[in-house]
Amino acid sequence: MEGSVLIRWPYAAILMVAVLTGCATGDWSSDTPTKGNTKLSKATRVNLNKQNVSSLGAPSDNLWLRIRDGFQMEPVDSPLIVNQTVWLSARPDYVQRSMKRSSPYLFYIVQEVNARNMPTELALLPFVESAFNPQAKSGAKAMGIWQFMPKTGKDFQLTQNVFRDERRDVLQSTDAALDYLNRLHTQFGSWELALAAYNWGSGNVLRAQKKNLAAGLPTDYWSLAMPLETRAYVPKLMAYRALVLDPDAFGVTLPELENHPYFVAVDVNNDIDVTLAAKLAEMSLDEFKTLNPSFNKPVILSAANQQILLPFGHAEVYQENLKKYNKPLSTWTAVKVAQTQSAEATAQSLGVDLATLREINGIPKGMRIKAGSTVIIPKTNRRPGDISVALAETASLSLEKPPPPPKKSKKKGGRGSGKNPPEGKTASKGNSSSNNAASQHKSASTGLAKSAKKDPIKTSGKQ
Prior knowledge:
The chain is mainly alpha-helical. The protein contains 18 helices and ten strands. Helix 3 crosses helix 12 and helix 9 packs across helix 10 (202-214). The longest helix is centred in the middle third of the chain and has 19 residues, at 170-188.
């Protein structure tokens, strides 16, 4: 059934309340890791020491036609699908914004879907998961356009440390999500059931199937008893399928997407500040973070095979500006704390400003830094080099509350003194902190970019 037919169903078919937001908050855990560690990006990759960006090229065509040609899933005559198509048709502005956000990423995702011979409907799944917002974070701590939970991210070898969270990395998370979906399809033999397991957890789907078998009922997606979120999951995807097939029926104009890579992956040969990288590429910081949302800190590391993604035109500009730049590329380094101590003591021992140490590392007042933690600090003449591979791969920050002070014992009075006099109140509760006169080293890229205010991404917890 085509999208234009679906939305002509009577509005009386809208029987279920389901909000179209990112929702991959089911049981994402798996018992065994997937493929080996393949950190090299499959995107067009350039080593600026050896290659020139302008020598790269790709054919131009309509990506939406390629997506439509790859559709394999068949919509069913279900009021649940009608409900979602009507929901979309009533919100063309929301759809338009989501479509615009998808523009930098869709070619890569479609390319990876095609390489695995998967239905191209799956390239639209981030619309359901996160509205294509790479900074989307659920209440259950799922992250990125594919909404990976922390444990599942580790199962699929997505690095999560002080410097970066690859659950937000569009390339790495896409590869992991498609591998996971392929595994689920092999397990269940149906893309609808694979999607249900992706959202709800394979164990829950198996139990629902077992219950239906015992009752002599079918075990397909449409026949299983599920939470509302999972019940609406495939219909939401099919609604986007209908939208791509017939955007005019939804009052939506699809963004013009050419059938070639939007970005190029540029090797990082030396540590470089995020703000400087954006400046050399002549991009706004927000634009830069849109393609590079995985960095947690204001510095991008050359260690651990790091790279940045840049649109083709900006990559050429970046290359030329980098050649001319003759100042230090990075103003940040990292050290491992040898013993558990307060932030004040750490700042003093490292010779850095306390406020800067707290801000750049996200250390609240009243918390101690545990031994073995890695902290980011401004570079000095004592620590001028790039951050090591060991720290780049294993850096973590652990904080704890200090132990309560020991209780003071009351002094005993002298002979014949009678009752002890009441103890006097202490003059103060401790030393008041004074303002540090040293200039603070701050970066405009501190912290993560916020989700788009107009389209808040709401995700529910586990069912």
